[in-house]
Each structure stands twice: as structure tokens, then as C-alpha cells.
Amino acid sequence: MTPQDMESRIVRYGDLQPCKTAFIDAHTPGSDQKENFTIIGGGVSESPDQHVHITIPHGFNIGAAGQPPKCRNSLHDHRTAEAFFVLSGRWRFFWGRYGDAGEVVLEKGDIFNIPTGVFRGFENIGSDYGMIMAILGGDDAGGGVMWAPQVIEDAADHGLVLAETGKLYDTKKGEALPGDVGPMPLMEADELAKRGEPTTAQVLPNHVARYWDMVALSDRSPAKVIGETGILRDKPGFEVNFITRGSASERAGSFAHPSVLMPVTGHWKVTWDGGSATLAPGDTMSVPEGMAHTVLPSMTGEAAIYQIVGTADPAGLTWQG
């Protein structure tokens, strides 16, 4: 594959195109400054304004959320897996029906694999603009977002109405639901009762991996972070590996499914038959299935990169309580 072909599969951090109207809480105070990015796949945006950088199906989606300090993402759930790692900033994740069942604070490089069946939200508690990168299971990302009822009610008070079709309408702009389309119904009591309320102690051992722990575990070989035999054991339709300078190999490798490379620290040179490219933190590179390639640090200093590989597994863990 030529360098030109591969360049079309690389999204540079500086080229990311944000959407500020992606979700129902785009007008809600406290959530109205967030930016949503859809990097690979269709994503779960409810806005036609959302730009998709790479539309090639991978069996999973890659996205990102950028938020200034004190900005939060409202409580929601997905039908497929959702995993986040922190690219920059300091983030508080919280969960439960009202967001008070438990919480965890993540720093740069930390990763959180959130099971389905639990309402979750997050906020930037750092002092600067921060970015978290997201991996969503499935090509259609589970068909969208399921919001906690109070989120839909709060949004309506600020002019945004979500249709049952998943499309947003802004009443402040004079938009209204079509006559044959109803509003998104609030989740019924029986569905709400199925949502998990795990404590922080229940979540931390099995769903959160810390950057420096992964650095230690990957000193000689890549650490499998998410997978059937991973630090976080799950089969969400993708596996996540963590590679550092000590575990990077000059031996070329390939996968049966598409994979994605996402540096956290340092610069990484990806080489294949026909070309090479250098990635920096915040860049995202899609590697075609079957293409042999090497991934090596290109400069001295700290270096770590996430590698996401598609699998044929289903949606992943649902919280069992």
C-alpha cells in the first residue's frame, strides 16, 4: 500500500473536526462546551453536523471527547462496549441512575472499560482543556445512546428535543418534530430497574487499568489490556494492547481484522511494505487487515501506544451486579 493510500487512513490530532451539537445535552448548562469527534466509524452522534473522518468499517468505532474544565458529559448508556483512555487532562467518571453510585478519577494514559447496562458520565476536573479517546463496540455502535430520563427532560427545558428516530431538533432555531415522528420516550421503570448500580470498589479491580501499571507490565512484551486474557477481561468485539519502548518489536506483524494505533506518549514510526509514517500523541492510524507492519518508537524518551484490534466477538460485558 502506497504512502498516499495510508495517509488517508491517518487522522492527525490537529486535523480533528469537532461537533459542538452532537448530543441532546448540547444546550444544557455545564455540558454546553463539550466537543465530540468521530474518528473511525459512524459513531453515535445525534447531529447531522458530525464529521466522520474514516468511514471504513472496522468492527468497532473510534471517537473522542474534548472538554474545557468543569464541563461534563451527561449520564447515558450504550448497547455495546465503551472504553475510554485519557489523552490529556484529569477526568472524573461517575455512574449509576443519578451518577452517585460510584466514581473514579483517571489521569493521562489510564483506561476505563465500562460495561453496558450502567448509566455513565464524565467531567474534566483538570485546569486545562482535556481529551479522552473512546472505543465503541460494533460498526453501528449499538444503535445510538440511551439517556437517563432526567437528561432528556433537562434538554427539553433548554430547547433540544430528541426524536424517536434518534435525530435532534432545536426548538430555539424554530425546529419541530415532524408530524409523524414522536419524541424519544423516557426509559420505563422496568428498564431503569435493570441498570446496574455498582460501587467504586466493585468497578475498580475489573474495569480500570492505570498507565504506570501497564508500563510496568509491558516492559518486555506488549500488555493485553482488554481481551479474553487481558488485564480487563472482556470480549467486546475488539482487543486492546499496550506497547512501550521495551516491548516494541522489529518483527513485522499483521492481524486478520483491521487494527488501530493511537499513541499516548512519544513518537512512533509505523513501517510497511511500501512506506512508513510517524505518529504523535493524539494521532489515529487505521491499519488494514492482513498488512504486515512494524511499530517502533522514533525518538528517545517515554513512549507508549495503544493498539486496538478487531475481533468477531459480541458486544461485551453487561454489568451483572
UniProtKB/TrEMBL annotation:
Q: Which domain of life is it from?
A: Bacteria
Write the record's keywords in alphabetical order, separated by commas. Isomerase
Q: Which Pfam families does the record cross-reference, listed alphabetically?
A: Cupin_2
Q: State the InterPro entries in the record.
A: Cupin_2 (IPR013096), RmlC-like_jellyroll (IPR014710), RmlC_Cupin_sf (IPR011051)
The segment(s) forming the Cupin type-2 domain are 69-132
One annotated GO molecular function is:
isomerase activity
User: What is the designated name of this protein?
Assistant: Mannose-6-phosphate isomerase, cupin superfamily
Q: Which organism is it from?
A: Shimia haliotis
